[in-house]
Design a protein that fits this description.
The protein has 334 residues and is an alpha/beta fold. It has 14 helices and ten strands.
Length: 334
């Protein structure tokens, strides 16, 4: 009797398993439509990319015609001196978005999008930790009081990837304080609270128990590590779809969006994005990779996603490479 005849049940099972795995990897969970948005940071546009941030912002609204924005009330910009608040720039951003009926996610907290992650006021270094936590809550409350009745704000984001301790210049997370922030904002606004976590480096479990209503995940495909250089995440779209469906079944979170979809090149640390050549940008974000990331997000079954890098597209356009800007425009102009 041959090996196949003796072990036909096991062989059949393995073949079926391989078939099932192949079907899972190739599965397409696309929704009929996806609500696309972008994350915008005036500070990043101006200081990192050398742009006129107001000009950039208006181009996003009037040329790209973006209808969803993720904005941040950075603590250092909002409270430049203890107890003195300055909402000039954020008021302008929110007002301009409102004129065009653009939906807004507004982030509050110590840790918000863009490096160094924790945007501490310069005066905070001379304040002890207990007093600083009280002042942090006071700042969050002040921001929420100012904008809580704005009809264009659809979610309030509290902190940004607070459990991702391996990235950013931040103190150790105080989970009790984080939950207190979530409860405070939820009580004051009555609107859904967005909490965020890494889609590649986290289980999502701790963040799902924080009191948030919506989880925002990152979605990266090509990244850079100083030890191994550029590398590609080989996870298929079905990986994200499976994680989302499982999370919705075992946690209070019932909606998951992509809060940070990679659409900007990743610098190696040796040069900033202004200094990199097109060939260097292409290592992590060619126009073709841009298109692939959009397709991947659709295939993973997400119905809401915020692209990361709109300021960079505008910088590239200003430098004579409008390809990213024009490709992105298709998301809102079709």
């Amino acid at each position: 009797m041959s090996f196949i005849q003796r072990h036909w049940i096991l062989i059949s099972f393995l073949l079926l398993l391989l078939l099932g795995l192949g079907l899972w990897i190739a599965a397409d969970f696309s929704r009929p439509t996806v609500a696309w948005g972008v994350t915008f940071s005036a500070d990043y546009a101006e200081k990192e990319l050398g742009l006129d941030w107001r000009e950039t912002y208006l181009a996003i609204l009037d040329d790209l015609k973006v209808d969803r924005l993720r904005l941040s009330a950075y603590w250092d910009a909002t409270e430049p001196e203890p107890g003195r608040y300055d909402f000039t720039d954020l008021d302008w951003q929110i007002a301009e978005a409102g004129k065009r009926n653009v939906s807004i996610i507004l982030g509050v907290g110590r840790r918000l999008p863009r490096w160094p992650e924790c945007h501490d006021p310069s005066w905070s270094s001379s304040t002890n930790s207990i007093e600083l936590e009280e002042m942090q809550l006071a700042y969050v409350k002040k921001v929420v009081e100012r904008y809580k009745d704005n009809p264009n704000i659809i979610y309030w984001q509290v902190e940004n990837e607070p459990y991702l301790s391996t990235f950013g210049i931040c103190p150790k997370l105080n989970e009790a304080l984080f939950r207190e922030e979530v409860s405070l904002v939820k009580e004051m606004t009555g609107k859904p609270i967005l909490v965020t976590d890494s889609g590649e480096l986290s289980t999502w479990w701790p963040i799902s128990r924080s009191g948030g209503d919506v989880l925002g995940t990152t979605l990266y495909r090509v990244v850079h590590n100083k030890y191994i250089g550029y590398f590609y995440w080989f996870t298929p779209p079905s990986f994200y779809w499976t994680r989302v469906e499982l999370l919705k079944k075992i946690s209070p979170i019932k909606k998951v969006i992509v809060a940070e979809l990679q659409a900007e090149s990743w610098h190696s640390g040796e040069k900033n994005l202004q200094e990199m050549s097109q060939a260097e940008h292409n290592q992590s974000m060619s126009v073709e990779q841009f298109k692939k990331n959009i397709f991947f997000t659709k295939k993973a079954g997400f119905d809401e996603a915020y692209l990361w890098g709109v300021e960079w597209w505008y910088m590239m356009k200003q430098k004579g490479t409008p390809d990213y800007w024009e490709e992105a425009k298709k998301l809102w102009n079709n």
